[in-house]
């Protein structure tokens, strides 16, 4: 009998890892997953990482562990860099040492948002804040320390699980009569459910076109458009006001435009990507089913 592929998923309690866990339950029995939360495996500890890989005999590692608090990172750059750069380096070295492939998740925040056409994988990163900077450093560590990697940059991730803009809007929309959301930051929401399918496709089809990829849903939206669609699809009545970013100042500056070009991933994986509105409908449905 053929040995099952072994896959380590780090950051096992986070939004993406939880979504991945729910997705794999119904998919491929030829793959064995080990979901490690931050207590099981602290990716900033090089000895713990090496030890985990020595015992685990993994074929793949999906790095969902990250410091994701964009604003807090501005005053805590040390921790952001420790997790997003040093953690990525530890995993890349361990993968290289044990001949495992790494699927490392990164972000549209590596770009400064000054472009007016979708960002390609070959465009030069120039992060605006500490979070984006630490994620870019993490990408560089992966590239420097191994060959068999997929770096997937994604944007505006949301799902039925964990903390995200979609769930916050549902909560605030039900609690408040009026909400203000920025309309001058434009990007693309990404269903973590769709991203999980992409990760599983790479593993189950043993894709070997290693490198950097961009993945989001199709289409373009402002955060205001996204919020309006969340309320519309979920039949929530709220007075939604479009505001400028300068009326809602945050410690970290965010890219004004972070739409990504997905031609590379669509070609390599031979797939179509759903429009963000279609995926929002699907995720709203998943959340509704899970809440009953
Ligand atoms: N969320 C977005 O909008 C978005 C957008 C673009 C890209 N991304 C990227 O997508 C990936 C997944 O994001 P997400 O939304 O799933 O984030 P998340 O919900 O914040 O999950 C991150 C997980 O990482 C874990 N973690 C933190 N430090 C760790 C450490 N030292 N060792 C092991 N685990 C550690 C956290 O565990 P504890 O809670 O126990 O610390 C948490 O469960 C990240 O790489 C993120 O940068 C996210």
UniProtKB/TrEMBL annotation:
Keyword Isomerase among UniProt keywords: no
GO cellular component: cytosol
Pfam families for the chain: RmlD_sub_bind
Record-level Gene Ontology MF annotations: dTDP-4-dehydrorhamnose reductase activity
Top enzyme class: oxidoreductase
Function: Catalyzes the reduction of dTDP-6-deoxy-L-lyxo-4-hexulose to yield dTDP-L-rhamnose.
Gene: rfbD
UniProt entry keywords in alphabetical sequence: NADP, Oxidoreductase
Highest taxon in the source lineage: Bacteria
Listed name of the protein: dTDP-4-dehydrorhamnose reductase
Reaction equations catalysed: dTDP-beta-L-rhamnose + NADP(+) = dTDP-4-dehydro-beta-L-rhamnose + NADPH + H(+)
Family indicated by similarity: Belongs to the dTDP-4-dehydrorhamnose reductase family.
Domain RmlD-like substrate binding: start-end pairs: 6-283
UniProt-listed Enzyme Commission number(s): 1.1.1.133
Pathway it works in: Carbohydrate biosynthesis; dTDP-L-rhamnose biosynthesis
GO biological process terms, semicolon-separated: dTDP-rhamnose biosynthetic process
């Amino acid at each position: 009998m053929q040995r099952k592929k072994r896959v380590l998923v780090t950051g096992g309690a986070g939004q993406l890892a939880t979504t991945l866990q729910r997705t794999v339950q119904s998919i491929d029995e030829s793959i064995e997953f080990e979901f490690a939360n931050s207590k099981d495996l602290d990716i900033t500890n090089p000895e713990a990482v090496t030890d985990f890989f020595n015992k685990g005999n993994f074929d793949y590692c999906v790095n969902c562990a990250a410091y994701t608090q964009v604003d807090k990172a501005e005053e805590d750059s040390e921790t952001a860099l420790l997790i997003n750069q040093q953690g990525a380096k530890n995993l890349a070295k361990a993968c290289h040492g044990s001949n495992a492939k790494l699927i490392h998740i990164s972000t549209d925040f590596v770009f400064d948002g000054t472009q007016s056409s979708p960002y390609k994988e070959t465009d030069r990163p120039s992060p605006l804040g500490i979070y984006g900077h630490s994620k870019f450093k993490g990408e560089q560590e992966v590239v420097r320390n191994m060959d068999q990697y997929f770096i997937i940059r994604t944007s505006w991730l949301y799902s039925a699980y964990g903390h995200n803009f979609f769930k916050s809007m549902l909560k605030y929309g039900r609690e408040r009569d009026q909400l203000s959301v920025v309309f001058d930051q434009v990007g693309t929401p990404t269903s973590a459910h769709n991203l999980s399918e992409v990760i599983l496709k790479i593993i189950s089809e043993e894709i070997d076109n290693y490198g950097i990829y961009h993945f989001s849903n199709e289409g373009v939206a402002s955060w205001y458009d996204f919020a309006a669609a969340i309320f519309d699809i979920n039949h929530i009545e709220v007075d939604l006001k479009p505001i400028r970013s300068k009326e809602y100042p945050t410690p970290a500056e965010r890219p004004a435009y972070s739409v990504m070009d997905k031609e590379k991933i669509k070609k390599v994986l031979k797939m179509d990507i759903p429009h963000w509105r279609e995926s929002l409908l699907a995720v709203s449905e998943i959340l509704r089913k899970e809440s009953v």
